[in-house]
Design a protein that fits this description.
Blueprint (H helix, E strand, L loop, with lengths): L15 E9 L7 E10 L2 E7 L9 E4 L3 E5 L1 E3 L18 H12 L4 H17 L2 E8 L17 H15 L2 E8 L18 H15 L11 E4 L7 H14 L2 E6 L3 H11 L3 H7 L7 E5 L5 H10 L2 E4 L1 H6 L7 H7 L3 E3 L13 H15 L6 H15 L17 E5 L12 H7 L5 E6 L2 E5 L2 E2 L4 H17 L3
Parallel strand pairs: 1-4, 1-5, 6-7, 7-8, 8-9, 9-10, 10-11, 11-12, 12-13
Antiparallel strand pairs: 1-2, 2-3, 5-14, 14-15, 15-16, 16-17
């Protein structure tokens, strides 16, 4: 990837000093400071510790009194385009919901994807998210890039959301998704929203070549992501895995989300979803899967032994009635587990910060009060997510030398005031905390609870206009 394709850095970015705050580093030892500091220079953390920060001439000093500094949150599963269909099919199971919405999604174009991605990523940033992946798998055959353009839209949809991520300023891991198993071949999606395998592999390779940046501090990395066992063929899964490993990028897919998927795989392939994808090369330390709700003991062992990660999406699983993932068992087995929002059409909240509390509560509903602690949830949302995305070396914790992705949560309001002695518990168990500041690569993305990189009113207007166009068209 060329250097000029990265967000432009200031010639000499001043240091930023955050001090007087509690600090949860989420390092390997779980180090915390009741009164500490974080110092940023040139997009990198140069000091993290207790007490006041060392003196830095000309630094931008942020008073963090009453706040908690944590690593920026990492979203490990999302479908940004679904922002435009929030609230649709509100009472359906996953398969029913997909059947109802596939025809609507078949009308998306790059303009709609850009509007949805910008709104969705802006909202994610306001919820404390500094890194987000996106799994985009719907590529209609003849959509345009912008109004008035007649170029085919397949390759432009991914570029549209990458452009949106750059405008918001978040770190972005778009996964080039795909579907090639239509209804006529026994799959779930209608034939007019699937692609042929040659088109998919060509477009995926081009996306890697054009957008993937493997360097430390990268703002854009591509993953290879056939959608699910019920929407792609075995041949696509095999060839996509080979392509990803040849190019050195990660692999992502949906797995074990619902009992319908379990029944589909046993009926069509004669085995469980986990064993099916394992036979096709889809378990390994370069793979993370979405949901993992219906994993039996054998599947948990296979994920752990192979180093495969899981994106846990508790709100979406609840919204669709899919069930509760075995997070306690996955963590105990050593499986990398991150948090995910999933698409805003199956998690209308759309933010990541709120998932911390939901993840804690549903784990305890399933396995009792000892199932998950607040600090384990924070680790899932930060370092756990970084592990799933293969970024544990440069994001996910507040440690010297890592990238300056920092969330400064304001705990001075009435909703958190009486929990000040344990700010991590206040953050996880209390109401959603506003952000005093959100830094990505040392740049301010949110300041005093307001998006600093885009106008929220403009984002909302563009998304509403795109939704109106999408839902107004009849097939």
């Amino acid at each position: 990837m060329s250097a000029d394709a990265r967000p432009a850095a200031e010639a000499q970015r001043p240091q930023t000093v955050i001090e007087g705050c509690a600090v949860a580093t989420v390092d390997a030892a779980g180090t915390e400071y009741a009164d500490g500091h974080v110092v940023v220079e040139d997009g990198v953390l140069v000091a993290v510790g207790a007490g006041p920060a060392p003196a830095y001439d000309g630094a931008n000093v942020v008073n963090g009194r009453g706040c908690l500094a944590t690593p920026g949150l990492v979203n490990t599963h999302h479908h940004l385009y679904q922002w435009l269909t929030r609230g649709c099919a509100p009472d359906n199971t996953l398969f029913e919901w997909l059947v109802e919405l596939y025809p609507v999604w078949a009308r998306i174009d790059a303009e709609a994807v850009h509007a949805a991605a910008a709104a969705g990523l802006g909202w994610l940033a306001l919820s404390g998210c500094t890194t987000s992946m996106d799994h985009h798998y719907v590529y209609p055959a003849a959509r345009t890039t912008r109004r008035g353009s007649s170029r085919p839209g397949r390759g432009d949809l991914l570029a549209a959301e990458i452009e949106a991520a750059r405008s918001i300023g978040v770190r972005f891991h778009p996964a080039r998704g795909s579907m090639n198993l239509g209804e006529s071949q026994g799959g779930l999606p209608p034939d007019h929203v699937v692609e042929d395998i040659d088109t998919i592999l060509k477009a995926t390779a081009e996306a890697i070549d054009e957008h993937h940046d493997p360097s430390p501090g990268s703002m854009t990395q591509i993953a290879v992501a056939p959608c699910s066992p019920f929407s792609v063929t075995a041949d696509l899964l095999r060839q996509a895995a080979a392509l990803a490993r040849d190019r050195g990028v990660r692999l992502h897919t949906h797995l074990c989300e619902t009992l319908d998927e379990e029944a589909f795989c046993r009926d069509k392939f004669g085995t469980s979803p986990t064993r099916y994808v394992e036979e096709l090369g889809w378990l390994g330390p370069d793979v993370w899967v979405a949901h993992g709700v219906h994993l039996d003991d054998d599947a948990v062992r296979r994920l752990a032994a192979s180093g495969t990660g899981v994106a846990h999406c508790p709100s979406s699983n609840g919204r669709l009635g899919a069930g509760i993932a075995r997070v306690k068992d996955l963590l105990a087995a050593g499986v990398p587990v991150g948090l995910g929002v999933d698409g805003p059409a199956s998690n209308e909240h759309g933010g990541l910060g709120s998932e911390l509390r939901i993840a804690l509560l549903v784990a305890r509903l399933r396995d009792g009060v000892q199932a998950l602690t607040g600090r384990e949830v924070l680790r899932m949302a930060t370092m756990g997510g970084a592990r799933c995305l293969g970024r544990e070396g440069d994001i996910g914790s507040l440690e010297v030398g890592k990238r300056a992705d920092v969330a400064l949560w304001d705990l001075t309001g009435l909703g958190h005031l009486d929990m000040a002695e344990d700010p991590v518990t206040a953050l996880v168990m209390g109401p959603p905390a506003p952000l005093r500041s959100l830094l990505v690569e040392g740049r301010t993305v949110v300041a005093d609870g307001v998006l600093a990189t885009a106008d929220e009113t403009d984002l909302g207007a563009a998304a509403r206009a795109a939704r109106s166009r999408l839902l107004a068209v009849t097939t």
